[in-house]
Amino acid sequence: MNATNGFTPGHSYFEATARQRLQQILDAGSFREFLAPETVEVSPHLAALDLPGAFDDGVIIGAASLGGRRVLVAAQEGRFMGGSVGEIHGAKIVGLLRRAVAERPDAVLLLVDSGGVRLHEANAGLIAISEIMRAVLTVRAAGVPVLALVGGSCGAFGGMGIVAKLCSAILISEEGRLALSGPEVIETVMGVEEFDSKDRALVWRVTGGKHRYLMGDCAELVEDDSAAFRLGALEYLDTHGEPEPSLFTLRAVQQHLSDRMVRFGAYRDGLEVWADLGVAQPQQVPLLDRDSLVALKKGLPA
Q1: For the chain, what is the domain count?
Q2: 111 in a domain, yes or no?
Q3: Domain span including residue 95
C-alpha cells in the first residue's frame, strides 16, 4: 500500500488550500471533479448583496481512490467566507452524499473546514445544513462509512460541527477545532466574561484537537500533515466497518452524553476537565507532542 501517496511528509494540512489537500491525500492523479467550476452557478444570494462569489462556492466535490479504495470526497475551502455553507455549497455536498447511496463507494471523506452556516444566506444555509445532516445518516445507514477530517484554519463549527459528529469517525489534528458554537459567537451572545475569543490558548483548550481527542470525540489524533491524515483514514478503514444502526446504540450514546454533562458541565476550562479525567499534570497537555498525548490517553482511567 502506498500509504503516503508519494508525498514527503511535511505538507501542513492547516496551511493548505482545499485543492492542495485533495492532491496531497488522495492517490496521485485519481481525483475526478464533479461540477467543474465553469458549470457551477455563483451564489445568487451573495450577488443580491453585492458580495463576490466563488467559482466553486467554497467546496470541491468528486470521486477518487485512497489506497486503491473507491471514495467520494468533498473538501471545503476555509479561505472563502470561512468555509460557510450556503445553498449551492450545501447542495453540492448533499448531491455527493446521495450519489454515495447509489454507488456504494468504500467510503466518503468530508474535509471539513467551516465556521458553519453562511449567515448571508440565512434560511437557505440552515436548510442546506439540515439536508447534509440527513444525507450523512442515510449514507451510513446504507453501510458506507463517512469520515470527517478536521484540521483546517476554520475548524468544524456550527452546523458543520454537528455534521462532523454525525459521521462514522472524526480524524483531527492538534490545530483542528470542533464545537457547536464558535468562540466569537459565544462572546458576542454571552459576553467576554463567559468566553474570551481572543484568548487563543483557552480556545484550543476548549475546542482544540487535543481536548477533543482526550474527551473521546474523535477517533484519532494525527499530526498537522496531509500524509498523516491520509494514513489515518486508511488505517481507520482497514480496522473499522460501518456498524448496523441500532436504537440500543443511540440510547447508549445519549446516556453517555448526559452523564458527561453532569460530570463536566460546571467547568470553564479544559485544564479542569483534564484534571478530572485523571491527567496528573494538566498544564503540560498543550506542550505534549502527538505520540505522547496518545500514550497519555491510553493510560487514563476508563
Answers
A1: 1
A2: yes
A3: 18-178+218-242
Give kind and range of the element (H or E) at residue 7.
none
CATH number of the domain residue 136 falls in: 3.90.226.10
Sign of the four-CA dihedral 172, 176, 177, 182: negative
Rounded to 5°, the CA angle 41-44-48 comes to 150
pLDDT in tens, 196-217: 999 999 999 999 999 999 999 9
Strands annotated E in the chain:
32-34, 59-66, 69-76, 107-112, 146-150, 169-173, 220-222
The DSSP result for 158-202, as a single string, is HHHHHHHHHSSEEEEETT-BB-SS-HHHHHHHH-TTT--TT-HHH
- pTM confidence score: 0.92
> Is the residue at 200 inside a domain?
no
Quick one: pLDDT at residue 166? Answer: 96
Q: For residue 265, tell me if it sits in a domain.
A: no
Give per-residue pLDDT as tens, 23-70: 999 999 999 999 877 776 777 767 666 677 677 888 999 999 999 999
Residue 270 in any domain: the answer is no
